[in-house]
Specification:
- The protein has two domains: 62 residues, Translation initiation factor 3 (IF-3), N-terminal domain (Ubiquitin-like (UB roll), Roll); 89 residues, 2-Layer Sandwich (Translation Initiation Factor IF3).
- The N and C termini lie far apart (90 Å).
- Helices cover 46% and strands 27% of the residues.
Length: 182
Amino acid sequence: MRLISEKGEQLGIKHIREAQEFAERQDLDLVEVAPNSDPPVVRIMDYGKHKYQKEQARKAARKKQVNVNVREIKLRPKIGDHDFGTKRGHVERFLRHGDKVKVTIMFRGREVQHPELGERLLRRLADDLSELGRVESQPNLDGRNMVMTIAPLKTAQKTEDEAPQDERESKGERRRERAARS
């Protein structure tokens, strides 16, 4: 067996018993690193410490992982301007939160014969929100639904922290104005 020390130095080819005794003298473990090589490679290490470090590295990687939620908004091709503005506000909020948004236009009856209306609506939404998100998947007709996905831009997520504070300030101002009127 090829023996490697705790510091990574090669100690040469030793018999298994000799390698075990060497590890016991240092109060460490003998771990087989490459059993299929010729000769097999063993390493002297503190196996408990090694497992702990691997687990810590895995936890750190999991913390850095970003979970992306996909939120969905459904529209109809004959939506009113005010309703469209409301839906656009929802999409804007989702993008500021860092979520992807799946926008679906639902066609009913003969509406499906005019997919250009749905595409025009989706393009209008994408143009309105171009500073917050980019179109990840172009409008695509899927049966009676037309679907488009919008992903948030990095800059949109940075301004997310500023937006709620502005909202609170304007709500506070409105409360003070109402209190002054009464």
